[in-house]
Amino acid sequence: MREISYEEQTVRSGNPLARYAHRTRMTMAIGLVTRSCVKSGTVVDFGAGPGLFLHELGEARPDVTLVGHDPYMAPAFPEVKYAESLDTVEAQSVDVLTAFEVCEHLYSSELDALLDDAARILKPGGAFILSVPIMYGLAIAPKVSNWMIRSHSFKSEYSPAELLKAMVGIPVSRPQNPRTTHKGFDFRELRKIVSQRFVIDAVHLSPMPHTPWWLSSQYFMICRPQAGFAAVRS
């Protein structure tokens, strides 16, 4: 079976609802970063994949230095530099750090390390912008359906009872390995963790920005480091 590319899973998905959600998410991400980054600033994208977001950001903001990091995907755009790890990024050198659709795949220790790195590498007043999927509310049904269609399977990782619980916002247990699944991920728990280390300046919903969260598909947070939480990692 042919491997489905990143773009075919997202902005070029054969599912029109998934394609609309991902394209709207990409547009919102570019807008938020563009407004948050100073002239000739530096943007680092954690979990950059092949670099599609940074490539499109560079077209909107050619003055910005683009740096990506992804241990699993090869870069596809020559204008994007890749860092081997965030450990190699100089302290207080980054204007905007992004982590789009990646935190839901991290183990707790990896999330802690990302927050440490974010506090260390961001400039004073820099922005840490995250987006994660909303796996509760009305969006869960089309998301599960899209996964089944893409996997050519009639089976879902959600039981009917779990699907109903997720639709009304009741937590569903997560698999031990978060790498290849969104099941049970709860943006509300992530927000609690992030707010212990960062000031959350603003939140945004996509693709329905002016509705309750349970009608949307993605949750964005714009965060700033709290004073006294600048981490120094050896």
Automatic annotation (TrEMBL):
The keyword rRNA-binding does not apply. The keyword Transferase applies. One of its GO terms (molecular function) is methyltransferase activity. It comes from the Bacteria. One of its GO terms (biological process) is methylation. SUPFAM superfamilies: S-adenosyl-L-methionine-dependent methyltransferases. Keywords: Methyltransferase, Transferase. It holds the Pfam family Methyltransf_23. Coiled coil: none annotated. This is Methyltransferase domain protein. It comes from Caballeronia humi. The lineage of its organism: Bacteria, Pseudomonadati, Pseudomonadota, Betaproteobacteria, Burkholderiales.
